[in-house]
Amino acid sequence: MKKYNNFDLHFVFDLKNKNIQFLHAEYIHPLKQDLVQELQKDFLRDKNVKAAIAFGSGVEFRCNSYSDLDLCLERYDSEKAFHYEAGGEDSVIDVLYADQIGERLKKEIEEKGIVVYDREGRYV
Asked: For residues 90 and 60, what is the distance between their CA atoms, to the nearest angstrom?
């Protein structure tokens, strides 16, 4: 199985509106599309972000208004944390770093994760 973007495992969602234009947006639940779109500015601004992979309920049909957004970031420098401005008080974003997670979770993200930002174009 390839690393990330195993589209045959995922539901294809309608885009919430015409402003949703990030990579693989059709695989992100509509309830999380605006938030991922907002995060694109933060990914672009932070030159340490190599790729951002959405996983968990945000890429599944079971997502609801209480669901958080799970993100796994690949980064160039493992010492630098990611700081974001996207989202409001009601937005919960769980950020994990690919270089700091255990093998079991890493395998799940690699199998079911959807790349929503790719600075180098490696996962397009």
From this structure: 20
Report d(CA 63, CA 76) in Å as an integer. 30
Q: Where are the alpha helices (DSSP H) in 1-124?
A: 30-45, 103-112
Reported as type and span, the H/E element at residue 96 is strand 93-97
Closest CA to 14 of 29, 36, 35, 3: 29
Kindly report the average pLDDT of the chain as a whole number.
95
Does a structural domain hold residue 83? yes
Into how many domains does the chain fold? 1
> Where residue 12 sits, what CATH number does that domain have?
3.30.460.10
Question: Does the pTM of the predicted model rise above 0.90?
Answer: yes
Q: Which residues pair with 117 in a beta bridge?
A: 52
